[in-house]
Specification:
Layout: E1 10-12, E2 15-17, H1 21-44, H2 49-66, H3 70-87, H4 93-107, H5 121-135
Helix pairs in contact: 1-2, 3-4
Length: about 140
């Protein structure tokens, strides 16, 4: 199975290039912090189970956001909502992940991923209205 994450082309000012050095630096830094955090937790036992899982999973989610794997991020948000928010009773974890995901999409706008007005806006507003009523 061939992965194209590391050679994904992005557009900046009309010039095509692969992932920039700053993105790779952030990825390497997060991976090193992940390894150090796991070792510190295993050796020293500094954190409890929930804190360790939260730290490790937030670093993995940050990597997914940086690499712009939007579909994977959306699926992980749904999985966290079902498993953590619903079964364990933590009500705000997937909501915080969704806000972070939307902020990363907003900050990550480019000429390749511009914001456009959706077609049939009235249909989206109707769907939003129907979805808000049961949520209240």
């Amino acid at each position: 199975m061939k992965s194209s994450v590391w050679s994904k082309q992005t557009a900046k000012d009309g010039i095509w290039f692969t992932n920039s050095a700053s993105q790779i630096f952030i990825i390497v830094t997060v991976l090193i912090a992940l390894v150090v955090g796991i070792l510190a937790d295993v050796v020293l036992g500094l954190f409890g189970l929930y804190a360790s899982v939260l730290i490790i999973s937030s670093m993995i989610i940050a990597l997914i956001f940086i690499l712009r794997q939007d579909e994977l991020a959306a699926v992980l948000i749904l999985a966290v909502h079902l498993n953590v928010d619903w079964y364990l009773g933590f009500r705000l974890i997937s909501l915080a992940m969704t806000v972070a995901f939307l902020c990363s999409c907003y900050i990550g706008r480019s000429s390749m991923r511009p914001w456009v007005r959706p077609r049939s806006l009235w249909l989206w507003l109707l769907f939003l209205g129907l979805a808000i009523i049961p949520a209240i």
